[in-house]
Write a structure and sequence with these properties.
Length: 516
């Protein structure tokens, strides 16, 4: 306890809450550190008879803090815990040395009292600052603002060394509330530009505004882009003067938060690909096809943080999942959204058309996934939108007619009647039927055109059909003149006739002209 009494700013006993004494009231001399008995003055006067003066609240507060090595301030406000004593002493020195707002400050020697009476006098301004905390300190700040330079544009200029020293000492310490009070009062009582120093975070909280550079950084744009938006009237702001000719812009913190929320709805291509579960090339087709909202010039819009609207991806996924009609199929019978690439499918326009069809419910998923990219679709549903790969793998009706000699009208009729399987694709914007090799093989294993059979026998199809009155012909197309074209004979029927002929011992397929 006595060790702390030796501190120049300790004027009271923190335990007994009475003022310390260093002077004998009998002889008037300061107590000697070399006296024989601690309880007696060198003159023999009993120090126990000295009057006990109760310490003031300010004296108790400061002495308790120093005695506890900055750990606690007792019951006196403001409550302070865990403050560095060296920082505390410098702050107290600044507050007391510059206690008068109208004077430049006390000499430095006054800040180093040698006796209790000198310390009490030097520290006396603390009483007014700590009274009814924080009212007393707020009142002092208001006085300093009123006494400051009328042409001051910044808080540093308005409050001078007093504020600059306190700010440097208090920020980041247990005494930071002192600076918060200064900023709060300045925001209400002055027209100065706040936030031009290391206390800009406090200034933003107190004023509800942040300077344009800080706002631009928080939003995620350049200062020049933000200035362009300010000039265009897209962003709420206020202009403040600084210096003699300078001007700066401040943005409301609420406006910055609003812009951040708006920008969060627009994401980068990378984030969009991750959200949708698709490779970048598929996302590009989604953007070009218009199934998600995108904007190539998004950098010119302050409210957009990327080229793709996040919600449009979620909405598309929700629709596709809602319309899905799950069925059990082999993996090779389906195709996922993520596999709709031009390298795989060959036609960008067709990919976009398919995506649009899926987005409108014309093509439905047959298996759900965790994201859009994992949604699966029937290959047969997908293939009708892709001309190039299927056309390369098979033949169109015109190509098949040229290769086989069959009339294209007959082939078209076989397709229409379901006798010849085919795939429907879009080619140059028009529907086109493509017959794959496997489909042609299946057709040839089931049917033989009557014209081909007649040609092989050296006859005509009309004559051959008349010689087969009891045989069912299929796939014939009725012409306007009453004739038929493209009749088919089933291979099974042909085999049955061959067996009958073999058993009868004569050829059923002898030309009619040779029949007696």
């Amino acid at each position: 306890m006595r060790h702390h009494w030796e501190h120049a700013y300790v004027t009271a006993c923190s335990q007994h809450q009475i003022l310390l004494v260093d002077q004998c009231d009998a002889c008037g001399k300061h107590l000697s550190q070399e006296r024989l008995y601690i309880g007696l003055c060198s003159c023999g006067h009993d120090l126990g008879n000295l009057p006990r003066v109760r310490a003031t609240r300010g004296q108790q507060w400061l002495s308790t803090l120093i005695a506890s090595n900055g750990q606690q301030s007792g019951s006196v406000k403001p409550p302070v815990h865990g403050v560095d004593i060296n920082v505390l002493v410098k702050v107290i020195r600044t507050l007391c040395q510059y206690a008068d707002p109208t004077s430049p400050g006390l000499p430095r020697s006054a800040a180093l009292p040698k006796f209790i009476a000198d310390a009490v006098e030097f520290l006396s301004p603390l009483e007014a600052l700590l009274v009814d905390w924080p009212t007393g300190f707020r009142s002092h700040v208001e006085q300093r603002i009123a006494a400051g330079r009328k042409d001051a544009r910044t808080l540093n200029t308005l409050l001078g060394d007093w504020y600059i020293r306190l700010r440097k000492l208090c920020l980041g310490t247990a005494l930071e509330p002192l600076i918060q009070i200064v900023i709060d009062v300045a925001a209400q009582k002055s027209e100065c530009v706040l936030g031009m120093d290391s206390a800009k975070g406090m200034a933003e909280d107190a004023t509800g505004y942040m300077r344009a550079p800080a706002a631009a950084k928080a939003i995620g744009v350049s200062v020049s882009s933000l200035r362009d938006s300010i000039d265009a009237g897209e962003c709420e702001h206020r202009a403040r003067r600084t210096g003699t000719r300078g001007q700066l812009f401040e943005i409301p913190c609420a406006e910055v938060e609003r812009i951040q929320r708006q920008r969060a709805g627009w994401i980068s291509d990378y984030d969009a690909s991750e959200l949708a579960g698709v490779p970048p090339i598929v996302l590009e087709r989604m953007k070009t096809g218009g199934v998600v909202r995108s904007d190539k010039r998004w950098r010119e819009d302050l409210m957009k943080g990327g080229p793709v609207e996040r919600q449009s991806i979620l909405d598309l996924y929700e629709r596709v999942e809602r319309w899905a009609q799950p069925i059990a199929l082999a993996d090779d019978a389906t195709l996922t959204w993520a596999q709709l690439t031009s390298r795989r499918m060959g036609d960008r326009k067709a990919i976009e058309s398919l995506m649009q069809a899926i987005a409108t419910g014309k093509v439905k998923a047959v298996a759900r996934g965790r994201n859009l990219g994992e949604m699966s679709f029937l290959t047969t549903d997908v293939s009708q939108y892709f001309g190039t790969p299927l056309l390369e793998a098979g033949m169109s009706i015109q190509q098949l007619a040229k290769a086989t000699g069959w009339k294209w009208e007959s082939i078209q009729n076989w397709v229409d009647e379901g006798l010849l399987a085919s795939e429907l694709i879009q080619r140059r914007g028009q529907p086109c039927r493509v017959v794959l090799p496997s489909q042609l093989l299946e057709f040839c294993q089931a049917y033989v055109p009557l014209a081909d059979l007649a040609r092989a026998m050296g006859s005509r199809s009309s004559a051959l059909s008349r010689s087969l009155p009891g045989v069912e012909l299929v796939g014939a197309k009725q012409l306007p003149d009453g004739a038929t074209r493209g009749a088919l004979l089933r291979i099974a029927e042909l085999g049955r006739l061959a067996v009958i002929g073999a058993r009868a011992g004569h050829d059923l397929f002898v030309p009619a002209s040779l029949t007696p």
